[in-house]
Amino acid sequence: DLSVHVTLRSNSHGSDGVINCSATGFYPANIKFTLRQGSEMLKSESPSARSEPDGTFSASSAHFFNWSTRVGDPFFCEVNHDALEEPIRTDPRRGQRDSLF
Question: Which residues, if any, are the signal sequence (predicted)?
Answer without folding.
Answer: none
